[in-house]
Amino acid sequence: MTRTIVYAQWALAPYCIDAKLRALRVRKHLTLARLAAETGLSTALLSKLETGRMIPTLPTLITICRVYGVGLEHFFSGADRHSVSITRKEHLHGGNRGGAAAKMALNEPAEMPRLVVEALEMAGGAAYVPAEAGRETCIFAYVLDGGVEMNCGGVEESLTAGDCAYIESELPVSWVAKKPHCRVLVVRPGAPRRRG
């Protein structure tokens, strides 16, 4: 049996009211029965609201807001930050067979991302310098394909497909791709966030 989505469900979907209701209850360590006792609403109604099977009325939400100590804006405000980036594996198979390293951003470009995620594709013999001397760096690298010779502060390591490296250093770091090519997933912190 197919369920018809009414306009109100479609219009309210971006606000995730059902998920916010459940998250508040879980955060307050309340059971549905305890919340029902506090609000005077039935457990069946509360369950339907939390699972999205019923749309709450404003008086119902106001009653729930009083118990949780939040305002209606809690349910009708969007997320301060919400970003989802998907990169399909077909897009990772680039044609870079030249001498330089090619980088492809895997996260959505943002002014101050928390993480910078890149797919790095290098032809055999190509060099890449993810960290210069004297500049603190924090990098996670996972070799997807091929291999890379890594030099971290004068220490040489050979990484092949399936190997990963986590690097926190102020020493210079450089990679040279093994023949014929290599692909590396690189994750590093984004710009530091200001606390306001």
Write up this protein.
This protein has about 200 residues and is an alpha+beta fold. It folds into two domains: about 5-75, lambda repressor-like DNA-binding domains (434 Repressor (Amino-terminal Domain)); about 90-190, Jelly Rolls (Sandwich), CATH 2.60.120.10. The protein is about 25% helix and about 35% strand. The protein contains seven helices and seven strands. It has helices spanning about 5-10, 15-25, 30-40, 45-50, 60-70, 75, 90; strands at about 100-105, 115-125, 125-130, 135-150, 155-160, 165-170, 175-190. Strands 1, 2, 3, 4, 5, 6 and 7 form a seven-stranded antiparallel beta sheet that branches. Strand 4 (about 135-150) and strand 5 form a beta hairpin. The termini are far apart. The model has no long low-confidence stretch (mean pLDDT about 80).
Quick check: average pLDDT? 79
SSE arrangement, N to C:
HHHHHHHEEEEEEE
Label the structural class: alpha+beta
Question: Could you tell me the radius of gyration in angstroms?
Answer: 25 Å
Beta percentage is 25-35%
The biggest sheet, with number of strands, parallel, antiparallel or mixed sense and barrel status, is: 7 strands, antiparallel
Summarize, please:
With 196 residues, this protein is of the alpha+beta class.
